[in-house]
Amino acid sequence: xxxxxxxxxxxxxxxxxxxxxxxxxxxxxxxxxxxxxxxxxxxxxxxxxxxxxxxxxxxxxxxxxxxxxxxxxxxxxxxxxxxxxxxxxxxxxxxxxxxxxxxxxxxxxxxxxxxxxxxxxxxxxxxxxxxxxxxxxxxxxxxxxxxxxxxxxxxxxxxxxxxxxxxxxxxxxxxxxxxxxxx
Length: 183
Description:
3 helices; 32% helix
């Protein structure tokens, strides 16, 4: 039986080599992606240094405050008030004065009454105070020092590597190891 096995094996290898040479089989296809030649392992973290950056934020806001406003009120007066005041003042001056002083008292009363009548017709003379809210738009700019990432030094199988990561990995770091032939 061993006589038949050896020739059969030789025949099988010979036909396989012929098929490989005529191009039917050719070289093996390239791996589909790195997943076929990659595996995962754990590396020891040697050092982690935070990387800082400045983060600027502009916030528009409205700033309001109350302000006291004083307003002067001053009427313009009227001729009717002046005339009426002069008449009343003249009558009062006439009743107070006696003899030749009566004429002087009448004139003085008319002048004083005219002034009082004019002031009375203008309304209250003075000012009043009110509160007014004033607002303005401001842009508040704030700068904050923030951690933008981490520079990590780690050892995998005796070799030391450096990478910048977005997170602090802690004491151990999971690494993806990819193997491909060197040309």
